[in-house]
Amino acid sequence: DIVMTQSPDSLAVSLGERATINCKSSQSVLYSSNNKNYLAWYQQKPGQPPKLLIYWASTRESGVPDRFSGSGSGTDFTLTISSLQAEDVAVYYCQQYYSTPSTYTFGQGTKLEIK
Amino acid sequence: EVQLVQSGAEVKKPGESLKISCKGSGYSFTSYWIGWVRQMPGKGLEWMGIIYPGDSDTRYSPSFQGQVTISADKSISTAYLQWSSLKASDTAMYYCARLERELPSDYWGQGTLVTVSS
Predict the structure, then answer these.
(1) Pairing verdict, β B3-6 and A19-25
(2) Dihedral angle of Cα A64, A40, A100, B102, to the nearest 10 degrees
(3) Is A92 on the interface with B (CB under 8 A)?
């Protein structure tokens, strides 16, 4: 299985400041035939299901605010929130969907709080 | 509007069987995969397996193979996750999610809390 490792495990950022979460995969999730990274980011607020924020490593899902951005390629990826808002408090997960669908894997999650 | 509506919370005893459901609406149920995800109390997300309701092609994560059964009834646009003999360690929130091949899950059910306790 592809192992996804996020850092840090938790993060406290002041309102209006930048938040950065990292995700590293144990093998590349870049598919050479289409040059796409099979990497997604989800946001999960307490008591809610996960919400898809970004796919193909950097494509925002419809309706997601543009303060959320994704970057990276191969094995190293980053989710950036450019100006933290109170409603962004949540746990964030990366997920690879490169492997066979039965073995898609998530990172362990990063808890984002307000400083 | 795409919706995945899951069955309600369950409280069961160890050794009992259980089948929870996920009903899709607002889209062609047979054209998308349905995946199941476990979230143990205070923990992260674990991918359990998927089913393609169009032909019932079912695949399991190695960690869950033999532990659960995933099925679907396309006539009523419903996917299922079932256990034949529950353990206390099955206590968790279970989510279903829609996905297309080579894309991540874009719609999720609200979750079904399963509590297994003697």
Answers:
(1) unpaired
(2) 40
(3) no
The predicted pLDDT at position A1 comes to 87
Residue A82: Cβ within 10 Å count: 14
In angstroms, the separation between the Cα of residue A99 and the nearest Cα of chain B is 9
Cis before A8? omega within 30: yes
Sequence-separated (6 or more) residues with CB below 8 Å from residue A93:
A6, A41, A42, A44, A50, A106, A107, A109, A110, B44, B45
A-proximal residues of B, 54-73, CB under 8 Å: 59-62
Q: What separation in angstroms does the CA of B104 have from each of A52, A70, B17, B75? A: 8, 15, 30, 25
Structure tokens at B67: 């532990």
Query: What's the CA gap between A76 and A42, in Å, rounded?
Result: 16
Kindly determine whether residue B44 and residue A103, on different chains, have CB atoms separated by under 8 Å.
no
Neighbour-count burial of A74, counting CB atoms closer than 10 A to its CB (0-12 exposed, 13-18 middle, 19+ buried): middle
**Encoding tokens for residue A22?**
């990292």
Q: Confidence band (pLDDT; 50, 70, 90) for B108?
A: very high
Task: Flag whether pLDDT at A99 surpasses 90.
Answer: no
Q: Which amino acid is at A113?
A: E
Q: Is A102 on the interface with B (CB under 8 A)?
A: yes
Express each pLDDT in B35-86 by its tens digit.
999 999 999 999 999 999 999 999 999 999 999 999 999 999 999 999 999 9
